[in-house]
Design brief:
about 350 residues, mainly alpha, about 0% strand, globular
């Protein structure tokens, strides 16, 4: 059964977010065959998950024509910040109570960890960098919204592309030439000192603009769907080549590529995925269900999934590690998403009951 897309509100973006969070969980779960080339290729594919999320953010936030409400925007940023503060406390308490992780109780350490984004050894909050990056994007969002002229947007995208992708790929080529010739080659990364944007966040601004531009042309990009498939394939092959240059292996081996979001190959995958899922004429009822239930709860899944992974890693995964491969990892990832959704649904039900009881009283 299929439904007309005109009756569906941003369902493509919800489905995209559902796919992206699935890629994130698959990427973090990592119960893979270290000697597998296929598993390695899938992990390279999953490097595009975060870029897809930022493209969706750009598609939503940079295409709105409504007047900017600074008070509402500030509240949104504060809620995001308080959200990460609350979850850092939850993570610390969880790891301390259930796994005996030592927490330095000094005031400075607590403040640094809870409010200033410092980590604590043994508390798995490394993935919270994404929320920090998202907050940074929201802080600059009012300025990005001012860029309405196409020439201005294309100029900024060109500058961002050069300093975010071209330089990283150029540096990789220089590294390859150096390995073959045995000679010292100029360091292309020195050019990033001219980057007018924060080097860490420039790539995410670029992905937001890409999401905006592609979303505004969603009716026209349908004819590029076949090319989008090629884009994804070449992107994955490109990242496999990047990893081979960096580490000398085509197999998974538990090795991540360095600076995975900054290469042109990653962009090829992200753009290909965005076109494939944002240019369809209709979606099935199953896809719509996935978009609503998974795609609209990605932030909750993002926060909860590592806690569930930690529990599984110390119980189930130890017993079944000999079966590790991409298929097992995919099943485990879907189970983690399912458990996360159940927790979110229960929490939302409790919250609704509390709200109703307050109104009645």
């Amino acid at each position: 059964m299929e439904e007309s897309k005109k009756s569906l509100r941003d369902i493509d973006l919800d489905i995209l977010k559902a796919l992206a969070i699935t890629m994130v969980v698959f990427f973090h779960n990592m119960q893979l065959d270290s000697g597998s080339i296929i598993d390695n290729a899938l992990m390279m594919f999953c490097n595009a998950a975060v870029p897809v999320f930022f493209m969706v953010t750009g598609a939503v936030q940079l295409t709105r024509d409504n007047k900017f409400d600074e008070k509402k925007h500030i509240k949104t940023v504060i809620k995001m910040y308080l959200g990460i503060v609350c979850w850092k406390i939850i993570y610390a308490v969880f790891m301390h109570e259930f796994y005996g992780v030592h927490i330095d109780g000094s005031l400075s350490n607590i403040i640094n960890y809870v409010f200033l984004f410092q980590g604590i050894e043994g508390v798995p909050t490394e993935h919270f960098w994404y929320i920090k990056a998202l907050i940074a994007m929201y802080l600059i969002l009012p300025l990005l919204k001012l860029c309405r002229d196409k020439k201005t947007i294309y100029y900024l995208m060109t500058v961002l592309f050069i300093f975010s992708c071209i330089i990283f790929d150029l540096s990789l080529v220089f590294e390859l030439v150096s390995k073959f010739t045995g000679k010292n080659i100029p360091n292309a990364m020195l050019l990033t000192e001219m980057n007018p944007f924060n080097p860490t966040y420039a790539i995410y601004i670029l992905y937001m603009f890409l999401g905006k531009c592609l979303y505004e042309q969603k009716e026209r990009i349908y004819k590029y769907r076949k090319r989008a498939v090629c884009s994804v394939v070449f992107g994955v092959l490109g990242l496999i080549a990047v990893k081979y240059i960096q580490s000398g292996t085509l197999k998974w081996q538990g090795i991540h590529i360095v600076s995975g979001y900054y290469y042109c190959s990653t962009m090829l995958i992200a753009v290909g995925i965005f076109i494939l899922f944002n240019s369809r004429k209709s979606v099935s009822s199953i896809e719509r269900c996935i978009g609503i239930h998974v795609g609209r709860h990605t932030l909750g899944i993002f926060y909860i999934h590592i806690l569930i992974y930690t529990i599984l890693e110390n119980t189930v995964y130890i017993k079944i590690s000999r079966f590790n491969n991409c298929f097992v990892n995919a099943i485990e990832s879907l189970c983690i998403i399912g458990i996360s959704l159940i927790i979110i649904i229960i929490f939302n039900k409790i919250k609704m009951l509390c709200i109703k009881s307050k109104k009645l009283s």
